[in-house]
UniProtKB/TrEMBL annotation:
The protein's name: EamA domain-containing membrane protein RarD
Top-rank lineage group of the source organism: Bacteria
Principal location class: membrane
Keywords for the protein's UniProt record, in alphabetical order: Membrane, Transmembrane, Transmembrane helix
Keyword check for tRNA-binding: no
Membrane topology, record value: Multi-pass membrane protein
Organism ancestry: Bacteria, Pseudomonadati, Pseudomonadota, Gammaproteobacteria, Oceanospirillales
Transmembrane portions of the chain: 21-41, 47-69, 81-103, 109-132, 139-159, 165-184, 196-214, 226-247, 259-276, 282-301
Pfam families cross-referenced by the UniProt entry: EamA
Organism: Vreelandella subterranea
Family, per entry: Belongs to the EamA transporter family.
Length: 313
């Protein structure tokens, strides 16, 4: 008699929601939410220091996410927790502290924002210098063209302030902090990693202590009892969850250079936010700068796609 053959059913791998969405749609969401963080900072300046808002934003996020993440966090090896805690300190605390403290010391906002927008070039230089990565000429050209578009959009706000000379290094340090975190996160994606929500929770959690250590030296850690402060915390909390969440998702789907270059469109998108919320005027030079940055991003995306095609052959 023939023995019955056992039929093995293979369970299909579960796909996350973001794996079903086009990368361009995710990048559009990244631009919208990342630029909204700057609007949140604009909302908060009349009510509290930026780092106090960032502190309580992180506290609220940690409290809301804890019921959903504590089990996977308990199952995560300690060395993996340390790795993502370090990434969070650089990406959130280091980046925001460098920008806000520079502005506090007198660095003009426009100049500090331009330093932040140097992220794609800073990341490319770090990758080339320390990781031995080689970018083709078209990628370098795209990064430079994209930066020209950013400067075109923001040139009216580029003035020198009366800050001490060393203070101008703080926004650059903040940008480099996010650049290092991005490269570190990209490499961490190839090793045992955490889910998105536990990752965001841990990064917000470690940032609480960094923000508190800085803010306690400058004033009280108590929240400001006002509707404006509460709105600022809610707005920046949402922009943090969505902005950083989509940033890490896009980083998992594409190269670090492409993800960072997409943020070249953040300044003109921020101007659109400001026009919609505060009635600030728009101008043709903003539209022209947006077109220039888009050309730069297109050059980077095209070069990255060509590199991927050659690598798959």
């Amino acid at each position: 008699m023939n023995q019955p053959t056992a039929i093995q059913h293979t369970k299909p791998m579960r796909r996350h929601w973001h794996q079903c969405l086009p990368l361009l749609l995710l990048e559009a969401g990244l631009l919208l939410t990342w630029s909204s963080g700057l609007i949140g900072a604009r909302l908060s300046i009349d009510y509290a220091p930026a780092l106090l808002v960032a502190l309580w934003r992180s506290v609220v996020i940690c409290l809301l996410l804890l019921p959903f993440v504590y089990r996977p966090l308990l199952k995560t090896p300690f060395r993996v927790l340390l790795r993502y805690a370090g990434i969070g300190l650089l990406a959130m605390a280091g980046y925001l502290t460098g920008l806000t403290q520079g502005i506090t010391l007198g660095v003009p906002v426009g100049l500090a924002a331009l330093c932040a927008d140097l992220l794609p070039l800073g990341m490319a230089l770090l990758a080339a210098a320390f990781l031995g990565e080689r970018l083709v000429r078209q990628v370098w050209l795209g990064l430079i063209v994209g930066l020209i578009g950013v400067i075109w959009v923001t040139h009216d706000a580029l003035v020198l302030g009366d800050a001490p000379l060393w203070a101008y290094s703080l926004p650059v340090a903040g940008m480099l902090s996010l650049a290092i975190a991005t490269l570190w996160q990209k490499r961490a994606n190839t090793s045992p990693s955490m889910g998105l929500l536990p990752n965001l929770w841990l990064q917000c959690f470690v940032s609480i202590f960094a923000f508190a250590a800085i803010e306690v030296s400058q004033g009280s850690l108590m929240p400001v009892p006002s509707a404006g402060f509460a709105l600022s915390v809610v707005w920046t909390g949402l922009s943090t969850l969505l902005g950083y969440g989509l940033y890490w998702i896009c980083l998992r789907r594409s190269s670090a250079t492409r993800v960072a270059s997409v943020l070249y469109l953040s300044p003109p998108i921020t101007f659109l936010w400001a026009w919609a919320m505060f009635g600030e005027p728009l101008s043709w030079h903003i539209a022209i700068g947006m077109v220039i940055s888009s050309v730069g991003i297109w050059l980077v995306v095209r070069a990255e796609a060509r590199k991927a095609d050659l690598g798959s052959v």
